[in-house]
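User:
Care to share a sequence and structure tokens?

Assistant:
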Amino acid sequence: MNAAAAVFDPWSPAFVADPYPAYAGLRETGRVHWYEPTGQWLIPRHADVSALLRDRRLGRTYLHRFSHEEFGRTPPPPEHEPFHVLNGNGLLDLEPPDHTRIRRLISKAFTARTVQRLTPAVERMAAELADELCARGGGDLIELVAEPLPVAVIAEMLGIPRADRGLLRPWSADIVGMFELNPTEEAARRAVRASVEFSAYLRDLIAERRAAPGDDLISALIAAHDADDRLSEQEMISTCVLLLNAGHEATVNTTANGWLALFRNPDQLAALRADPALLPTAVEELMRYDTPLQMFERWVLDDIEIAGRTLSRGAEVALLFGSANRDPERFPDPDCLDLTRSDNPHLTFGAGIHYCLGAPLARIELAASFGALLERAPGLRLVSEPRWKPGYVIRGLEELVVEV
């Protein structure tokens, strides 16, 4: 491990709280760094991360071309199979041709028009949550606003009964624990149990919708087909879980991380309060400034060369989104929060074929959430310095306690 990679310490609370100085060191000392503890190549610069997201010589999986053994990898333990079946049939971890087929079918149900039609309902829900926070005089912004909104929106879209929605967040949190670096066996057990329970719940719900279709996304996924192509039941289950997990984790953390950034940059918060028309560029800048998904991993399927170094088939690259989004080669004064920043090609939603399908919905939710709080709680302020959760890959706060 080189000296620059030595500053990269994803299990350190201090690093998780502020990884950006370490990223600057990585960017300054090279385009690619070997990191022994995880056996990965770290890629810190925007141009490289952006290019590699689109490079078909890399993949989210290798199983469409190689067995584990052919690829030089050890198969996961059989007892982890429920998690890998669930995860491996979702868009995020598939490659063409399955990825192409499934994304096309899902896009028939998850259209821009469908998402746009949700805007009034999302704004109404955000306003209700902001009013509840104000009525209490404050509280944990994550528990009272950031979490309930995306959960309610996706649950509403999927047609999940209101009484069952409390099940979703714990399942989601346990499943995404497996996306952290070198997860523990206990984390794996929790992810497997949640995968089994969540899948069984959705299987029953899909059966109900087959018998009695409704005006919801699950019914639309059942109906979506091209010629002889349909989504299998497992593909539908994996799609629903992915939509829920992405909504829970990424949107929740963007909301909380964004408000913390605003509290720490009072001049920018004041500017946004004075001019709500800044909201569209503000949302993009908050996603760039403190990225909820810090790392995106891909496998090298065919040898590639970066900065004169060959990365051989079987290697794994760790694309550092958080670092790419602070790269001074692409963003002038990248450590400065600038809510007027208009040239903002951040990589928070990814790029290439795995670009986030839910990006339009996330933008609507974030604009509604920030907009409602700016309007209804103009004096919103931070009560105490928050703590970061231990996870690095999906990076967020334990709580964000505020007063109105």
